[in-house]
Design a protein that fits this description.
Blueprint (H helix, E strand, L loop, with lengths): L7 H11 L3 E2 L6 E12 L5 E10 L4 H5 L1
Antiparallel strand pairs: 1-2, 2-3
């Protein structure tokens, strides 16, 4: 029987230690990481999805969300 790697509590403790909150230099609020999905016209002539991880605060919220 294989040994279990880590318990749920250990995984949660690791996640809380590794999350770093970043503050904006302009507005001073926390930046929130979001996934921005866009449709891009590719070189082959077809539309394809594009995923980008973007950090959003009050300063660039309008640019990201449109």
């Amino acid at each position: 029987m294989p040994k279990k790697d880590r318990t749920f509590a250990a995984k949660l403790a690791h996640e809380t230690r590794t999350v770093r909150l970043e503050t904006c230099g302009v507005c001073g609020k926390e930046k929130v990481a979001v996934v921005h999905m866009a449709s891009v016209y590719g070189e082959t002539g077809a539309w394809r999805p594009q995923k980008r991880r973007v950090k959003v605060c009050d300063c660039n919220r309008q640019e990201v969300y449109g």
